[in-house]
Amino acid sequence: MRTLNVSFQVKGNMFVKEAPTMKHMKIIEHTPTKLLMRICNKTSDVPYCDTFAVEEEWYLASSPNPNSKSAVLRIAMIPVWYKSTMMKSMILGNIKKEAAAAWEAWKTDFLTHPNATFVQKKKKAA
Hints:
The protein has about 130 residues and is α+β, with helices and mostly antiparallel strands. Helix content is about 20%, strand content about 45%. The model has no long low-confidence stretch (mean pLDDT about 85).
């Protein structure tokens, strides 16, 4: 388990300019072809931060074939509510917006290697 203290810049909020966050990262499974990590993000010094945390699960799997050049990355996020708040819908909207922006930044920074290709898999409509 690793703990990381970071401060994230908050844009578009006149009252809060940064959000100090503690990330608890735990490796659940680690094999030559699979990595499963769970991360709990707990923010402080932000209004209503005591009401929730955001949990992430990162799953990375590659083919056991050493000649294969492909892998699968799945990132799942969910807010965990500690207590009730009337601001729940606003908080949830901001979590979704910031998660999408973080994923786009991650793709831009790490998946733009000249030999890398990215194909996003979406759920089939029911």
